[in-house]
Amino acid sequence: MSPSSSRLARTGRRHGHGHRHGHGHFVGTYGLLVLTVLLFLLFSVLLPGTFPTLDNVSSILSGQSIPAILALGVTIPIASGKFDLSIGYALGLAHVMVLFLIVEKGWPWPLACLTVVAGGALVGAVNGAIVEFARIDAFIATLGTGSMMYAVTGWVTDGSRIVPGPDGLPAAFTDLYDARFLGLPVPAFYVLGLVVLLWLVLERLPFGRYLYVIGSNPRAAEIIGIPTHRYSVYAFACSGTVVGFAGVLLAAQQQIGNPSVGLDYLLPAFVGALLGSTAIRPGRANAIGTLVAVTVLAVGLAGIGQLGAQFWATPLFNGATLLLAVGLAGYSARRRLRTDAAAADDGATGTGTGTGTGTGSGAGTGTL
User: Fold this and answer.
1) What pLDDT, in 10s, does the model give residues 17-34?
2) Is the pTM of this model over 0.85?
3) Given pLDDT bands bounded at 50, 70 and 90, which one contains residue 175?
4) How open is the CA angle 260-266-271, to the nearest 5 degrees?
5) C-alpha atoms less than 13 angstroms from C-alpha of 260 in its C-beta half-sphere
């Protein structure tokens, strides 16, 4: 085969690969978003009188705001390759502590909320320090600290609920969850603001790039001078801050301190974060992907609930979706590695071809 024929063949293969990659890239990036739209249209057709209404949309936004915030919090340590299993216990402790400080200790609600959020950051930093400096696997470490937080929750509440007095809670505090803005629940705007903030941090600032490098190759991160231990602790601390904020919102929503609340939010948070890593930026945890994943889960749960599904349908849906999310996340990561390797091979082939052509032309000119 002549050199020109070889170049044509290689060019054809690259074009074919690029065409297939283009379709795969679109599906991987926007497939989950398209699925959200299709699910909403499907349930709107099946439930025309109840599903495509402003009341239903408001209910979905309000009811899924806390799981969405938790999922965004989980996204941060996942970006660094770590998992925080203590978030469910931390959420329960945070919401109990807010009500304990307001109802039992008489603290002003702003001070109680700020204290709990700061405590969440501290707990997250402790988790990160145990993982990084005690060299304990993140699963084991956060499961252990989570169990300890559950014990603290039981100690604070003595196993019973914290119920406000006859005057109830301050209206300004409950408005943190109940208020509306532009006709929509205020918590939806908390979620949107947090998504924007995390997008800026993870995608546009060195902090986020460092976390992605640490998550993909900790050894390489150390070699290039990234303080991996410190940034991993930062990731856990940021996650704890978000969980503390979610605990404040849960307290404003529930208005009763229930020591058993919290663990039910663990699975949906991880489903949202892991499923979100297959969208928008496939193969890596990202804030916008998490938001899309939480949205598709919220639409799906609302739809099957209005169709009359039994109570066990929700944990079944979450569990099955978690398995699917983990599988898709692994596939997306492997596919991204293959795509990067193929791009590198194409670049090397192109460099070799260009070098060979230039040498041949120069030799021929010298002979003439």
Assistant:
1) 444 455 555 556 777 788
2) no
3) very high
4) 155
5) 3
For residue 65, give every residue at least 6 positions away whose Cβ sits within 8 Å of its Cβ, in sequence order, or none.
185, 187, 188, 190, 191, 249
Q: In this predicted structure, which of 21-35, 123-137, 183-197, 349-363 has the lowest mean pLDDT? A: 349-363
Bin 198: left if φ > 0, else alpha if -120 < ψ < 50, else beta: alpha
CA angle (240 as vertex; 322, 287 as ends), nearest 5: 50
206-250: per-residue pLDDT in tens? 999 999 999 989 899 999 999 999 999 999 999 999 999 999 999
Mean pLDDT of the chain: 84
Question: What's the rounded Cα separation, in Å, for the pair 361 and 358?
Answer: 5
For 3, counting Cβ atoms within 10 Å of its Cβ (0-12 exposed, 13-18 middle, 19+ buried), the class is exposed
Q: What percent of the chain has pLDDT over 70?
A: 81
CB 82 within 8 A of CB 141: no
Examine the pLDDT at 333 and tell me if it is beyond 90.
no
- Comparing 35-49, 120-134, 230-244, 312-326, which segment has the lowest mean pLDDT? 312-326
| Banded model confidence at residue 300, pLDDT cuts 50, 70, 90 | confident
Tell whether the torsion through CA atoms of 200, 204, 210 and 211 is positive or negative.
Answer: positive
Cβ–Cβ < 8 Å for 28, 270:
no
Taking each helix axis from N to C end, the angle separating 109-133 and 228-254, rounded to the nearest 10 degrees, works out to 150
